[in-house]
Amino acid sequence: MRLYQDLAYLWPIVSPPEDYEEEAGYWRRAIRSHLGPGRHRILELGAGGGHNLSHLTADFEATAVDLSSNMIEHSRRLNPGVEHHVGDMRTVRLDRTFDAVLIHDAISYMLCEDDLRAAFATAREHLRPGGLLLVAPDLVQENFEDGKVLRWPIRLPAEPGAIEVTVEEHLTDPDPTDTMIESMITYAITEDGKQRLETDIHVVGLFPLKIWMSLMEEAGFMTEALPLPGDGDGCGEHLLSLNPPRVWSSVAGGGGGHGSGGVGWAVMAGGLGGLGGWGGGGHGWGSVAWPVMAGVWGCLGVWFGRVSGGGVGFGGLGRVGLGWG
């Protein structure tokens, strides 16, 4: 993947930080809606050149990790107040926790389900109880078109003599039986008055939404799908908001809500009560318990908590892991 190696110097040109401003607002609102006000500690895995992150550092205390040392150098220049590490999102361990973990479209480089499991395990390892994971896959199987051609919208440089680049990307699926697709990228570069073509092949993962959701739930997250503005070409349209269940042992809550058994967590109608469950008369029990949308019983190999009084599921795409009474 030359864009992150010998062609990394093109990154601020082909994908400038200002192009991320609108999307970063969605990430900021998602963090605020879950964590509330304050300068929360956030970790971005696969931060790349730090372009999305650059719009969040004024609000949050940030740490960035990326596999490419070239991209980390870009981010260091753009985000001098951010702590940076070179590392793989599947294996990196920083030995501390954060209020939120963010994974932008770098999650697309997870090529199989085990890669995704490892990335989600890293996120869980770095999240404090009640923290938030935000994930934005670039493509999902439902909106992939084999043979599609993407032309990146790149502004002409304002300064005479500056490097000019046009980018064309071809998406293909050589083997529909696996979970990988290929992206052939062509860069037409005008530099020092000379023109040349460079090519680059990226292999990325492609999964249906149901796989994203099931693997997140398997990792212990409750999932909500939020919209993103996307690129207008079917890419970057999903922001997955993931919350690990808060786990207590034999907790008690206001209004009669409680959990029993090994560990339990239940969301009850009536709002927050006490230190344990959320009040209103519902119960959570079993070895592990948490709610499902619309108050419906569900099972993922463990008992789920019951949401009394009926629930309303928030999110979209017909699949939500959050239920509120």
Label this structure with key terms.
about 325 residues; 7-stranded mixed sheet; alpha/beta; globular; about 25% strand; 4-stranded antiparallel sheet
List the helices and strands and how they pair.
Blueprint: H1 11-14, H2 21-35, E1 41-45, E2 61-66, H3 69-78, E3 83-86, E4 98-103, H4 113-125, E5 127-135, E6 149-151, E7 164-172, E8 180-191, E9 194-205, H5 209-218, E10 222-227, E11 238-243, E12 258-259, E13 283-284, E14 312-313, E15 323-324
Parallel strand pairs: 1-2, 1-4, 2-3, 4-5, 12-13
Antiparallel strand pairs: 5-11, 6-7, 7-8, 8-9, 10-11, 14-15
Helix pairs in contact: 4-5
Poorly predicted regions: 246-325
Quaternary structure type: single chain
* Overall SS class: alpha/beta
**Total of DSSP H or I helical runs spanning 4+ residues:** 5
Q: What is the typical, i.e. mean, pLDDT?
A: 78
Distance between the termini: 47 Å
* Order of strands across the main sheet: 3-2-1-4-5-11-10
Per DSSP E runs of 2 or more residues, the count of β-strands stands at 15
From the spread of the alpha carbons, the general shape counts as globular
Helix content estimate: 10-25%
- Cα-based radius of gyration, to the nearest Å: 22 Å
